[in-house]
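Table S2 (continued). Query chain:
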Amino acid sequence: MDKLLGPRLRKAREEIDLSQGAFAKALGLSSEYISLLEAGKRTPSFETLRKIAAYLNKDIGYFFDDTRPAFEALLAPGAVDERARRDILKFRAFAERYLALEEATGRRLDLAPAYSHISPERLADEERRRIGLGNEPIRDVFALCEANGCRLVRQPFPEEARIAGVFVFDAERRAAFAAVNANEAPGLQAVIAAHLYAHYLRDRAESPIVDNPDVVVEEYVSLYPPREQFAQTFASRFLVPRSKLRDLIEKDFRSRSLGYEDILYLKRYFGIGTRALLRALRSEGLLAEAKFEEYFKRNPEDREAEVFGATSGPEERRGRALFRKVRARVVPSDRFRLLAAEAEASARTKVEAPAPEGARRGSDE
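Corresponding output:
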């Protein structure tokens, strides 16, 4: 580990634009000690390494020459909160089962292109163009992730583990997997899925990645490394193309001041959470700061039900209650279910198929 620790520590520190002195002060260490670590002349204790990794938003495995399979690195001591370990094991079991189903059905997913040296805004535009979305809303971001090679499952993680999502890329088998915390509201789950999709497109080499819930909140993500800021900017632009947002407002609302019901309509149109939509409007200068603050504090569920009838609000409440009631349950994607049904039907057909005529005569003789 010593040979890799120094360069990787320096690289991670520079990614967040901190001097050795500022970094040391934030950790309660001396700048001389940080200098020795980066020079490879000291080896930190495990507790110090955990503190450094947590501050840099890196997994412990980042500092190792880790040639283990991706999930083994994710499950290494200290890599994830022990309270989430059981759920990570379920995620791994899902991934193995998914690959087995693809093998049985002959329907292996291809990887999407990997991107580098590109802005998050341009990546969102390029990826929309590549998959033929144009500037239309994504009706099902979960299915879209899978259609483009990132296998996805929604499963609950314990609240105290502070996990919004997990991304794993198995380089040896060229297979990508993402887990979205199903305890979050559906609108926020869509944002998490898009955030993880950005990691899939750009950060595969840094797998595994465990995302804290704060990295999908624009007010907090600036406190995290550039990788997370990139992924969140991508998610916002990918889910809400700004040209479409402006077009809708100019054509339908005639550039008038947006009321709260208009916000709810736009939120439903793009299939994201109310707060994510409010942030997009504010970033484009389409909503005054005073209105943003007013609307941000409101609970949209009751008003949405009044205006639009059967809405996502009550369903979100019921869905979240359901997930919390059955915390151990993994909720697979539609594609996973389809492959499972196809594999089951194929296996049943093989069992029920009669033996060839020659084989029957041979057995009779």
